[in-house]
């Protein structure tokens, strides 16, 4: 077996005194799309934040490409080729669309796939049309495209995507699904947090269901139909 791109073992995490993650364990291999499912408050976003080094207190093991990073700050973790797209998108309001795209520096990652500005604009023609518009003047769908595109410019190959389909029009959700399929074909590794199960079901290779800060079930894409009733119950659908 090859070394997992991301390997999490007995991960615990806290917000202040609140113990949120209670021994999370899972793996993601090169080129996989993996989705964390669960109800609100299950610990999915906290897991992404812990992996990216955005929590002050973490215990356990987080390995990226075999490298232990549990004690690393976020900027060092990013240099291993990790990109994080938070639910709030993080668009800088005082910058134009293009300035937002150009802001992050490219990572010096072995085998990195940093996209040029021209490639980004080919993938996201809306961003080209709005390249001189302030970030806050973009629609919700355009802001989400910008948040994902900004990561792709850095050369990150392991992407953490938090609720990228939330609140968007169906046509935008379809465009994002097409993008994720294209990224998978190019060899990107993706971990998604998604509330939209139908969106995730068409994209992911595997699903981990979280409850109360723990992984309680792993489901393969090939098992979805036979596990549907169980998933509906766990997710409160």
Kindly describe this structure.
- The chain has 237 residues and is of the alpha/beta class.
- Helix content is 33%, strand content 27%.
Outline of the structure:
It contains 9 helices and 10 strands.
Give the helix/strand layout:
Layout (H helix, E strand, L loop, with lengths): L5 E10 L2 E11 L4 E5 L6 H8 L5 E8 L2 E2 L5 H5 L3 E4 L11 H6 L14 H7 L1 H5 L10 H15 L3 E5 L7 H16 L3 E5 L3 H5 L4 E6 L2 E7 L3 H12 L2
Spell out the key features of this protein:
globular, six-stranded mixed beta sheet, four-stranded antiparallel beta sheet, alpha/beta, 10 strands, Rossmann fold, 237 residues
CATH architecture descriptor name? 3-Layer(aba) Sandwich
Using the coordinates above, name the CATH class: Alpha Beta
> What's the total count of β strands?
10
SSE arrangement, N to C: EEEHEEHEHHHHEHEHEEH
Helix and strand composition category: alpha/beta
Overall form? globular
- The share of residues in extended strands comes to 25-35%
CATH fold naming: Rossmann fold
Instruction: Give average pLDDT, whole number.
Output: 91
- Integer-rounded radius of gyration: 17 Å
How far do the termini sit from each other? 36 Å
**Number of helix segments?**
9
Spatial order of the strands in the main sheet?
6-7-8-3-9-10
Estimate nothing, just give the exact number of structural domains: 1
For the sheet with most strands, the description reads: 6 strands, mixed
Poorly predicted runs: none
In quaternary terms, these chains amount to single chain
Q: What would CATH call the homologous superfamily?
A: P-loop containing nucleotide triphosphate hydrolases
Residue share in helices? Answer: 25-40%
